[in-house]
Specification:
Two copies of one chain form a homodimer.
Chain A (H helix, E strand, L loop, with lengths): L3 E6 L28 H9 L8 E6 L3 H7 L8 E4 L5 H15 L4 E6 L3 E2 L2 H18 L2 E6 L10 E4 L14 E8 L4 H10 L2 E11 H11 L1 H11 L7 H11 L5 H6 L5 E6 L3 E2 L4 H7 L8 E9 L5 E12 L4 E5 L3 E6 L6 H10 L7
Parallel strand pairs in A: 1-2, 1-4, 2-3, 6-10, 12-13, 13-14
Antiparallel strand pairs in A: 4-9, 5-11, 6-9, 7-8, 7-9, 8-10, 14-15
Helix pairs in contact in A: 3-6, 3-7, 6-7, 7-8
Chain lengths: 362, 362
């Protein structure tokens, strides 16, 4: 059996979850759906499979204290701090340096900190399979989600239509990736759904650390060279300074765009475990329990003549009268009222607050 | 010239203004439209006409401290406390006892504490005329507002179509009342508006104190007898106890229903001074200034893709996305989101809170 490490990416700001998500307490550090914060649930979901001392968290300076507090079972040294967010490729590369020094053949499971999965047993089955294939094949593995609707908020993965002759893992539900597709418009999303060979791109990756570092060296040589500068200083007192200066030179790029789309051979494992990236308040409404009027309520609320509305009331009382298809989120210092279907525009509010330097609300 | 006393009725709870209006700080003690609280504006509006030492306020125990604080120019002895709210007839009768002891021929101007008037000069002209007619004629006088729309939220007054032969004040714009009408439905309200002989019932009354006490004695003899019990104790140490026990026996009845509709001859003076009883959040929206998108904002707010919406944000930030025709009211501990046109139903929320004994929100 290989050594297995998890790398949980937890540096996001979660602007689309304003006013709950703030710079100091972003989405992954909140209880958005059900009990436990999203990052706690992410860790708990894999702790049967991966020893907490092998779980690394990549976050930023502002969030580190809360991360450490919420994940008391994880050694504080496992929390890696990026000076700035530079998208997923540098984040994964930085964590890869740490894992590679321990064991170059270790398998890395890369997980976003802010996803939910309803069937955790099935999720762990997929991970176990992925770890085995990643270790044995030395290939890049990603997890594709069986699509259930023409979703325009996700990227897609098209699989190769094959009979298994050239794919030794075909019988286990492991497919080869034909192409990655960006978030489609609705018409395209409908075609994807009908075609049957498109999966949702979950953003979950499994690979041996030598595999991914090698692929980064091939496809993102500039990044790889910067990472090497950091590598030499790990465990050294100069480390903090070198990470700081190196990150200024690193450009932001996603692992999808920078590596996955360019790599020669990528496997995708089909998962069907009730996955959601919980990307917006609309998505929270979609996956939440509702009452007979289609309302989903967290906290104290009185809804009169109200339908299909999501209410989060914090420690306040929220009352609604004669409305439908709304999202109402109340926090200590701010209130959001948003038409359902338009919650992607919540980021406009955060942009406005940044422009106006209303930092107390960011 | 007669002695003139004002009686300002300020005991209401303002349930339709929840969550701003609370038992301790009801509508009349708040800045709902523009600057100054409603009761402060009510006093200031008449202080050119009536000496503050002649202005009486009728309120309740809970509100008395705030009333006294807000109206520092009014002697504290002028604040009359009702043990319970019993509608307007007992309130007016109780105040009448105090005025009658000073001067039975004094003119009483009875004003709700929570109305607004845009043209205060015209309002005072109407009051001056009313005071003179009330003193000279010894009749009951009310003020009717020239209607500008088929409003279903007000009661109406129909005037007698006459040529002035039997009405010595006809030339001064003083009419005789034919009948009082309850709040109509929309079809009836449209007929009232077209007919030209209906005015809005403002709830403002002017009469000599001997006139109104006499009318109460005739039409509400039970109330009058209870009031006499109180009368004997004014200035006495037993007063508080007697008011307390007497009020338990008094049934709630409005002066409109109990006296005005039954009295033989009532005059109405037409007023056209931009009056509103500010009876709901919808009415606040109607009379407030709006921006180019039809939004009316008080406090900190960012409205994105939002039209025809009223926002009061208290000391919070309110953000809206993709909504229209909404009322959004945020206070320290509660948030209201209400469809425009349905703000009459805000009282349902208060009823709910009472049933659930959530007294902290009342």
């Amino acid at each position: 059996m290989p050594n297995v490490y998890a790398v949980i990416m937890a540096g996001g700001v979660g602007t689309r979850f304003w006013p709950r998500s703030r710079e100091k307490t972003p989405k992954q550090l909140l209880e958005i759906v059900g009990e436990g914060t999203m990052i706690q649930n992410t860790v708990n979901r894999i702790s049967d499979l991966i020893d907490p001392k092998n779980i690394l968290i990549v976050t930023n300076k502002i969030q580190k204290p809360s991360v450490a507090k919420q994940l008391s079972n994880i050694p504080e040294d496992n929390i890696i701090v990026e000076p700035q967010g530079r998208n997923t490729a540098p984040c994964i590369g930085l964590a890869g340096l740490f894992v590679r020094r321990i064991d170059p053949e270790a398998v890395m499971v890369v997980l976003p900190a802010d996803h939910i999965m309803h069937n955790e047993e099935e999720f762990r089955r997929v991970l176990r399979l992925a770890i085995w294939v990643a270790y044995e094949s030395g290939k890049l593995i990603t997890v594709g989600i069986h699509p259930t609707r023409p979703e325009t908020g996700y990227g897609y993965i098209q699989v190769i239509d094959e009979d298994g002759k050239t794919n030794p893992y075909f019988d286990r539900g492991v497919y080869r990736v034909k192409t990655f597709a960006e978030k489609p418009n609705l018409a395209t999303a409908k075609q994807f759904l009908q075609s049957g060979d498109f999966l949702w791109n979950s953003g979950i990756f499994i690979w041996r650390v030598d595999t991914i570092m090698n692929e980064i060296q091939i496809h993102l040589p500039d990044l790889y060279n910067e990472l090497l500068k950091i590598d030499g200083s790990i465990g050294d007192e100069k480390y903090d300074n070198i990470v700081e200066t190196t990150y200024r030179m690193i450009r932001g790029i996603s692992i999808d765009y920078g590596v996955m789309e360019k790599a020669k051979e990528v496997y995708v494992i089909k998962g069907n475990f009730g996955w959601s990236d919980v990307g917006s308040w609309d998505e929270v409404y979609r996956i939440s329990g509702k009452d007979d009027n289609g309302n989903s309520i967290t906290g104290q609320a009185f809804l009169h003549d109200t339908k299909n509305t999501l209410v989060y009331s914090g420690d306040k009382l929220v009352a609604t009268v004669g409305v439908e298809d709304l999202i109402v989120i109340a926090t200590d210092d701010a209130v959001l009222v948003c038409k359902k279907g338009q919650s992607q525009d919540v980021k406009e509010i955060v942009d406005y607050l940044r422009r106006k330097q209303k930092v107390e609300y960011l």
